[in-house]
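Q: Sequence in, structure out?
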Amino acid sequence: MYKAVISDLDGTLLSRGHHVTKFTKNVIKEIIKKGINFYIASGRSYDQIGYVTEQLEVKIPIIAANGARIFDADGNMIYEKGLSSKAANAILGLDYEHIAEGSHLNIFSGNDWIITKGTAQKVYDRIPRDVKVNFKEVPKDELKNLDILKIFYIGEHEQLTNLEKAILKITDDVNVIFVSDYCMEVMAKGANKGAATKFLLEREGLELKDAVAFGDGENDFEMLTMVGKGYAMGNSIDRLRKLLPKDFEFVGENTEDGEAVKLQELFLERAKNI
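A: Exactly. Output:
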């Protein structure tokens, strides 16, 4: 039997309104009671994940910022891998507004979500309503002075793919991924959910083969394919579907409790009234 579960949040564990359903909450509580380790792996910052663990009523290790940071169950950061200043400055030197018309620049630096001055409302209009965040607005000419964890852009998919090509032309020291059709992230090379999952499992005395994982975005690819068994959500984005083997297993959509249904099947076959 598998000993650990690693779950993405948006589009995976979270249902409509970006909340945990009662059914999912109860299934997770039951598998934890059976001694199965449960971890969250998200593109969000640690602070933006807290309300989910509160809903689940658990204290668990968390992979944040798509693998750039890992926190233990007590909230202590135990791993960090940010962008090199050389790569970050090269990317920030691009005229992204011309390359990807209508897109908006975002940066995670430390615990801050940074945007350029005057774009707050436009970014708010693009992000899930449950994400409570106080943006820090910084003039463009001051961005290169930051210690940057990751850079991400919000905009139209076709425009963002133009920017993806431009970034990969100027540096090979990054990993460019789409967490959704409208959000593209730039991470340090080697920083991903798969590498973070390996680090966390080994720290807990487990191996990749001991775990199952669930996800729906391109940022989940390494995690899904490195563990003992990966499951893609029925609502997975096209970029993830194209990367996965043809025989890869899909479960129900996040709005159908797809992950929890599979967890019940895997770990709670004889359980009733979950």
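The chain has two domains: 4-80+191-268, 85-188.
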